[in-house]
Write a sequence for this structure.
């Protein structure tokens, strides 16, 4: 996020696109409610009718995967009416012409034709967003999990820069991170092309610095992303996989494909809290301690690095992940000897000059610090790009709309999208074992509009069969007007109804390699079984 | 205060004292024990609204004979203790208290004027008469507005010092539908309101824990007003269980086979 | 007597709400919102309120497991680490460091992520490091 959670309360207009915030980030939704009650405008764009839609000044349900067209349509209206921030564009940005040229084509009528959103609504969205600064834009996986994920994000940035909404308080472009430490995992160099603090692996200076610090020559060749690792496994190039606290068997696209790939591995190690779907097929399972059983830090979506503290001893014969990795390293002939995570933290901050260098456990306290925090006196940074962008000037991109990889057709007439529901989390390993969460939703389900339900003669809790070009699965139906006719929604938490049986691993963003979980074409039919007639009593 | 607690712990008058301590600028609940007697000098009364009584019930559930000292920061802490004692959640023989009243009550703290809420909802600073000044249709739509913000965190129940049922009606599928946001409204909130009749001691912690700023205290004040009018029962100070003693632990709702 | 309140951060979504773990007799008895935390100001969602339940779950793995002829056998740390280290070394020797991939995690701490990528880069010798930010 460029900005801070608390700051949303003081905004003039909040634009929500591709985030079901009350279900997935409730304590951010709280700030949205408060902003609204204090007088801010609220725009909600989501293919489903979400809880926040009820409170929006404009709520639209655009077709799956048409975000670029919707945003371009808004920008067209803004530029046509001269509502853009000319001074900001001149002083802070470049390549404005590229944007102008492309969005000139996207009249509200054209955008309406692609998105299914009435042209008047697009005009109203544009006006509300442009005229009520500061206006933060909030998005989540609804924007990124597309073959056009990068295009979608760039379009969000275009819109925000067009109205001078980047680099001021209570505004910005704000991806809401789905996992407690996604931000931290990226910051720490958990990516194939960068070290800590996004220092590129192929930079000679970076390579030299880390090689010296770690006492080993390091490869300067960027590695494989998770999406590229799967074909590498199938081709037999990737022989061993070490999975820490993840459940790709349920979270990766195309279950069958991945299953096949995992079987090809010579050696799979999974480090986990639970015997997850992935752990079940591992050769070695390393039992890890939970976050209540260790010290360390997490970095939240607003870049706030905060300390977690050990509350209880590790349960059973489990060890904190840092200790397991240290032991494994040492066993492989590279000694890692740390008495406490604080020593690791200090080693990391020394190698991460721009963002984490000024942090120490003592300084973090309970409130934590928001990076960049480059030195010991720096108070942290509530919002980014205040006077200048990381690259100097903010760059506009002219982005054309591209349709999703797979659209409904005669064989697979429904558009399927996936996401979360409020009481469960990701692949459900943590929440489905929790009594108070399980009680809310014990099984998977698929949301279907009443009109579609009527056509195939199904009612709530009837079992339906969903099939796509990849595979098929059974799941109970939930009949609801939250989805529009022709669209189905499937939550991702339930291993017995895995959405990735249906989704496509080949449909990925060419740059970010993020799979298009949000759009697949499927077919739905009622499961017909021969039941013994219930004679009743 | 510190001297008293130190003496109690040393003499064994209490085995455990639940008070507050400041850590990194945050006033937090803290267990003071004889083993770490030095910590008692850090005991503060402070501006913090945690339900120390409820924490005591958790300890008492594990160790029924343990003698527990509790810091009372507000008058409602005392009332919560009364209710918990009446309902056999705490044994008054094992509880010692220290009064350090003076901490501000959550809803007495100034609330921002939120124009949209004023127009469509109900303010936390309202008393039941204020809400009743609206006609029925207005009142209904305003409550529905407030309830429709609910994100079903159960924070109102979880933080509540006098909520202790092992099986909660709010999680009973036949009473309240599950799996959706907002929860089934207004049923979810009315089920809880009914259960607050004769229980709620008006401490305001529910409202403070609510991420959606729903004026829960107003709702429960109204139900307790009715309890007072109809049964002449004063929750928190009356010495007996409320007329609604059938609610709670004793009743188990089970679906019967047709 | 192990009775304490431990300030920490919720392990679910990326919001990063401040919590207090209630530790009674060395066991995790409950979770409370931190009333004065800058992120959540004393409020939590349904997942945050119940985070102690997954920690205490009987489903938790209690010891390392090693698969032998398709079945998991319980083992101790020394053996689990030795087997893992030997197999990784064998693969690196035979097929080179880029034949191994490491998936770090959005659920573990910064310190652990740092070590995990250091493990991949310095110990194995590959940049095949990724995690599920995309998923």
């Amino acid at each position: 996020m460029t900005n801070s959670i608390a700051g949303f309360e003081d905004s003039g207009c909040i634009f929500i696109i591709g985030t079901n915030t009350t279900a997935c980030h409730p304590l951010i939704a709280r700030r949205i409610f408060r902003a609204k009650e204090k007088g801010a405008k609220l725009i909600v764009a989501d293919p489903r009718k979400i809880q926040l839609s009820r409170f929006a000044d404009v709520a639209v349900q655009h077709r799956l995967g048409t975000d670029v067209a919707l945003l371009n349509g808004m920008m067209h209206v803004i530029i046509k009416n001269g509502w853009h921030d000319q001074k900001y564009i001149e002083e802070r940005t470049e390549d404005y012409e590229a944007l102008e040229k492309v969005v000139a084509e996207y009249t509200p009528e054209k955008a309406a034709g692609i998105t299914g959103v009435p042209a008047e609504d697009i005009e109203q969205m544009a006006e509300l967003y442009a005229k009520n600064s500061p206006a933060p834009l909030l998005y989540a996986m609804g924007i990124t999990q597309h073959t056009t994920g990068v295009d979608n994000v760039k379009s969000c940035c275009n819109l925000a820069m067009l109205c001078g909404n980047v680099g001021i308080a209570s505004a910005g472009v704000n991806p809401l991170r789905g996992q407690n430490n996604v931000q931290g995992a990226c910051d720490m160099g958990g990516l194939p092309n960068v070290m800590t603090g996004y220092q590129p692996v192929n930079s000679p200076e970076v390579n030299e610095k880390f090689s010296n610090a770690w006492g080993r020559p390091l490869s300067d060749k960027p590695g494989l992303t998770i999406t590229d690792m799967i074909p590498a496994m199938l081709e037999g190039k990737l022989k061993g996989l070490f999975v820490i606290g993840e459940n790709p068997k349920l979270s990766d696209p195309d279950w069958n494909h991945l299953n096949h790939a995992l079987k090809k591995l010579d050696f799979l190690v999974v480090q986990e809290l639970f015997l997850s779907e992935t752990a079940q097929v591992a050769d070695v399972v390393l039992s890890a301690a939970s976050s209540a059983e260790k010290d360390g830090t997490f970095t939240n979506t607003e870049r706030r690095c905060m300390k977690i503290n050990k509350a209880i001893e590790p349960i059973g014969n489990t060890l904190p992940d840092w200790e397991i990795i240290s032991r494994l390293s040492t066993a492989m002939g590279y000694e890692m000897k740390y008495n406490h995570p604080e020593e690791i933290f200090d080693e990391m901050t020394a190698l991460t000059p721009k963002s984490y260098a000024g942090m120490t456990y003592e300084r973090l306290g309970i409130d934590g610090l928001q990076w960049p925090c480059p030195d010991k006196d720096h108070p942290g940074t509530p919002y980014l790009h205040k006077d200048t962008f990381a690259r100097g000037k903010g760059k506009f991109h002219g982005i054309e709309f591209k349709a999703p990889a797979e659209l409904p057709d005669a064989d697979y007439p429904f558009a399927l999208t996936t996401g979360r529901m409020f009481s469960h989390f990701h692949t459900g390993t943590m929440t489905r074992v929790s009594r108070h969460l399980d009680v809310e939703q014990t099984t998977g389900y698929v949301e279907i509009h009443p009109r579609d339900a009527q056509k195939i003669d199904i009612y709530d809790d009837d079992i339906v069969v969903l099939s796509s070009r990849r595979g098929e699965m059974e799941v109970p139906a939930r009949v609801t007007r939250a989805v529009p006719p022709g669209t189905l929604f499937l939550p991702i938490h339930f291993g017995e109804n895995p959405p990735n049986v249906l989704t496509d691993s080949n449909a990925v963003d060419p740059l970010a390699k993020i799979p298009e979980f949000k759009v697949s074409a499927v077919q739905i039919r009622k499961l017909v079984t021969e039941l013994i007639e219930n004679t009743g009593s | 205060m510190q001297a008293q607690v130190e003496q109690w712990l040393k003499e064994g008058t209490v085995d455990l004292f639940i008070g507050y301590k400041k850590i990194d600028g945050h006033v937090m609940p803290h267990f003071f024990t004889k083993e770490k007697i030095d910590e008692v000098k850090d005991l503060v009364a402070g501006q913090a609204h945690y339900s120390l009584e409820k924490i005591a019930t958790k300890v008492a559930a594990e160790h029924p004979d343990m003698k527990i000292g509790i810091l009372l920061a507000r008058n409602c802490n005392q009332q919560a203790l009364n209710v918990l004692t009446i309902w056999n959640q705490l044994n008054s023989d094992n509880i010692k208290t220290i009064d350090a009243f003076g901490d501000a009550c959550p809803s007495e703290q100034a609330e921002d004027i939120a124009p949209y809420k004023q127009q469509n909802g109900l303010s936390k600073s309202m008393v039941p008469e204020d809400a009743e000044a609206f006609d029925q249709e207005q009142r209904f739509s305003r409550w529905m507005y407030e309830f429709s913000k609910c994100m079903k965190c159960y924070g109102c129940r979880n933080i509540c010092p006098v909520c202790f049922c092992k099986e909660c009606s709010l999680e009973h599928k036949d009473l309240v539908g599950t799996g959706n946001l907002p929860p089934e409204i207004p049923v979810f909130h009315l089920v809880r309101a009914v259960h607050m009749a004769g229980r709620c001691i008006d401490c305001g912690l529910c409202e403070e824990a609510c991420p959606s700023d729903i004026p829960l205290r107003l709702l429960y004040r109204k139900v307790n007003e009715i309890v007072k009018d109809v049964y002449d029962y004063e929750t928190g100070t009356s010495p007996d269980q409320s007329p609604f003693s059938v609610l709670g632990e004793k009743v188990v709702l089970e679906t019967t086979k047709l | 007597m192990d009775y304490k309140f431990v300030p920490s951060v919720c392990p679910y979504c990326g919001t990063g709400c401040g919590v207090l773990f209630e530790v009674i007799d060395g066991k995790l008895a409950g979770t409370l919102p931190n009333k004065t935390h800058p992120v959540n100001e004393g409020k939590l969602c349904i997942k945050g309120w119940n985070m102690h339940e997954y920690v205490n779950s009987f489903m938790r793995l209690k010891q390392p497991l090693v698969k032998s002829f398709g079945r998991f056998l319980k083992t101790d740390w020394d053996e689990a680490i030795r087997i893992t280290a030997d197999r990784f070394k064998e693969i690196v020797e035979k097929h080179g460091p880029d034949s191994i991939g490491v998936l770090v995690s959005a659920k573990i701490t910064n310190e652990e992520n740092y070590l995990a990528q250091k493990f991949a880069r310095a110990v194995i010798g590959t940049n095949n490091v990724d995690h599920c930010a995309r998923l």
Summary: Strands of chain B lie at 16-23, 26-33, 43-44, 68-72, 95-99. Chain B has two domains: 2-99, 106-231. The radius of gyration of chain B is 20 Å.
